[in-house]
Structures are given as C-alpha cells and as structure tokens.
Design a protein that fits this description.
Number of domains: 1
Structural class: mainly alpha
Strand order of the largest sheet: 1-2
Number of strands: 2
Order of helices and strands: EEHHHHH
Low-confidence stretches: none
Mean pLDDT: 89
CATH topology: Hypothetical Protein Ta1238, Chain: A
Number of helices: 5
Helix content: 55-70%
Radius of gyration: 18 Å
Strand content: under 5%
C-alpha cells in the first residue's frame, strides 16, 4: 500500500467511518496530538535504550512507556471513530485507566512529597518525560474541547489526565535515579 494517496491534498481526511472531514477539524487535532505524544514517547524510549539512562533507569519505565504507546494507538482510533459510528473498535476502558493508576501508586510510594512546584528540568530523560507530560496535557485539552462539541468516550479525558500525572512522577523518579536536580520555585 503506498503511503502517498493524494486524498488529503485538498485539506480533508477520512475518519475510520469513511466520513471526510477538514484537516482542521477538532477530532483530527485531538488524535493528531495523541500521535505527537506517542512520537515524544518514542524519543523517551530511544533515550532509555541509548542514553546515559540505559544503565540506571528502573526496568518498569521502559515497559510502561511501551504499554502507553500501545494504549495511545487505541486512544487515537477511539478519537478517530465517532461514538455513534457503525464501526466496531476497541475503545479506551476503565481497566486501561486502572493500569496507569497502579503505576502512579508505585511511584508515589518511592518519591518524596512535593511541597512546592518544580521546574521541568533535571536529566535529559527527565526533561523528555516532562515534555511528554505537556503534550499529554494538550491532548487532554483537545479532547475536552471535542467533548464539548460532540459525544466521545468519557474514559479518554480521564486516561489522559492520569497519564500526565504518571509522566510527571516518572520524570521525578528518573531525575532522582540519574542525579537530575529538581529545581523548586
């Protein structure tokens, strides 16, 4: 299958239902931002595998990021398919949210309590996780705007909210392991 189809040259794209929508449509912005988040997480994985973090990161981080990338593909197809569509797809579920919440609980037990805000910085890997967190927050805001316009799976916003919390804690944990300094403000 060729990658260049020329079907989007006029500024339109097709949803999984076959419906043509503007590339400026809020639905496309939402799942496009989820795709951007997935790409940032790919850079996180590259840093884990090739960077200085390869020797010291906690093993669950890599598997959690890979699982997150799989879930983001699911979430993207969920956003790309209207709730009332006659297309059967797997959608983000409460179980997916629970998985992220378990990761959060594990990290919260190992990290010191925050008493002030911190700047997104520290190690390179920690900073990349902070960047992923901010893209995740943007994806959440896009999904909220979309939900105000039309019905979407109500688990999407919760999932993205929990994922951004996880990415924040993962950044803190990585910085702690790599000696990246948390700068409080």
């Amino acid at each position: 299958m060729p990658i260049t189809t020329r079907t989007g040259d006029g500024g339109f794209s097709r949803l999984l239902t076959g419906e043509r929508v503007s590339k400026g449509d809020l639905r496309l912005e939402a799942y496009g931002t989820v795709d951007e988040l997935n790409a940032v997480l790919g850079v996180v994985l590259a840093e884990i595998d090739q960077g200085s973090a390869a020797e010291v990161h906690e093993p669950p981080l890599r598997s959690n990021i890979l699982e997150t990338q799989r879930l983001l593909f699911l979430l993207g197809s969920d956003l790309a398919t209207p709730q009332n569509a006659n297309v059967q797809i797997k959608r983000v579920s409460h179980e997916d949210i629970s998985k992220i919440e378990e990761w959060i609980t594990e990290l919260e037990q190992t990290l010191p309590e925050l008493k002030r805000f911190i700047l997104p910085s520290g190690s390179r890997l920690g900073s990349l996780l902070h960047q992923a967190r901010t893209v995740c927050r943007r994806a959440e805001r896009c999904s909220v705007r979309l939900s105000e316009k039309e019905e979407i799976n109500n688990h999407i916003q919760v999932f993205l909210n929990r994922l951004s919390d996880y990415l924040f804690l993962a950044a803190r944990q990585v910085n702690r392991e790599l000696g990246g300094r948390e700068i409080e403000i």
